[in-house]
Amino acid sequence: MDTILNLNMTVEQYAGDVRASLAGKVGKEPVLLLISGGVDSTVVGALLLKALNPDQVHLMYMDTGLMRKDETTHVKASLERLGAKHFHVVYCEDEFLSALKGITDPETKRKTIGDLFITIQEREVARLGLPETCFLAQGTIYPDIVESGDVGKGARVIKSHHNVGSPLVDAKRKSGRVIEPLEKLYKNEVRALGRFLGVADDVLRRHPFPGPGIAVRVLGEVTKEKCDILREADALYMEELKTRTGPSGQSLYDEIWQAFPVLLPIRSTGVAGDTRAYGWVLSLRAILSTDAMTAGVYPFQMKDLLEISARITGSITEIGRVTYDISAKPPATIEWE
Ligand code: XMP
Predict the structure, then answer these.
(1) Residue 141: what are its φ and ψ, rounded to 5°?
(2) Rounded-to-integer distance, Cα 135 and Cα 176, Å
């Protein structure tokens, strides 16, 4: 397989080759890229903006209301720093929250989100009015393709609405107009390429984030109020992990492969001053992994856990209790839904 490493190329040579082949293939046609805010799509965006005229490059990002705190602002700013001129934000929080109303079954939630994603994507791409000849770029990386061969396995179904089977992708693929410049790279190589292209370090270091967003971290019915509580808790948890140092000397955030809070659909008894309170229960997850297929629990120092928990319950009055999830994968999955 032609990766940067086994071709014995420097990242600089590899970036040069990819840029030349991209420019050759695309010519003067426009290119559309759906941005998720994750590492892969951001690096593809950076590559397109370097290889082509930024006027050709159309980036579309869906603000589903299921993202982390201030995510749209950060994602837009990071792509604009990389030279983006056409960054289209689709505000569709109301549509997603309405579609999710009353749904508690995890699989129905995922299916509802995936289907709506595709519907909105089709509608908004049509609204852009790009010519038939436009190309579609994707952030597919090598492990995605390996997983694709495994038709029917859970991992493939999970990612379907992002990388594989939307009608738009199918149509573009049929006409030979899909470009996947990271398809030969592993994640660490994508990061190296991104660093070379000037993608900000905090984007490259980001923990993985699921396609359905925090909808799978607000257990049970998803409401705006619960999403806002979870977003606040997530922001505090991440800030704590980034400012605390772990045994290796790195921040806890960099030692941990993936961390996030989960809002449970139950309240528990507590005290607030002289009165009884019924706050929500929040569970913290932090895991170590290399490929997300298996995962171990991060062995926090108890002092860190206690302080993080106290900060969360002290700052977010709706949360009455914090627990730490000590289940490995298997038998548990990384996400709760
Ligand atoms: P699980 O929960 O299956 O998660 O152990 C494995 C890894 O995949 C992420 N994940 C997703 N990623 N779309 C994605 O792109 C999804 O629907 C999705 N669901 C889970 C999860 O965060 C973990 O890193």
Answers:
(1) -115, 170
(2) 9
pLDDT recorded at residue 157: 42
| Atom number of ligand 1 nearest to Cα 329 | 5
Ligand 1 atom closest to Cα of residue 332: 5
3-state secondary structure of 71: helix
Furthest CA-CA distance within the chain: 71
**Model pLDDT for residues 226-247, shown as the tens digit of each residue:** 999 999 999 999 999 999 999 9
pTM above 0.90, yes or no: yes
Place of tokens 């009884």: 276
Helix or strand run (H / E) with residue 62: strand 57-63
- Contact (CB, 8 A) for 168 and 122: yes
Angle between helices 11-26 and 39-51 (to 10 degrees): 70
Print burial letters for 207-239: b (CB count within 10 Å at least 16), e (below 16).
bebbbbbbbbbbbbebeeebbebbbbbbebbbe
* Nearest residue by C-alpha to atom 13 in ligand 1: 211
DSSP assignments along 224-281, one per residue:
HHHHHHHHHHHHHHHHHHHHSB-TTSSBHHHH-SEEEEEEEEEEEEEEETTEEEEEEE
Please give the number of the atom of ligand 1 that sits closest to the Cα of 260.
22
Question: Whose Cα sits closest to atom 7 in ligand 1?
Answer: 292
Q: How confident is the model at residue 145 (pLDDT cuts 50, 70, 90)?
A: confident
pLDDT value at residue 3: 59
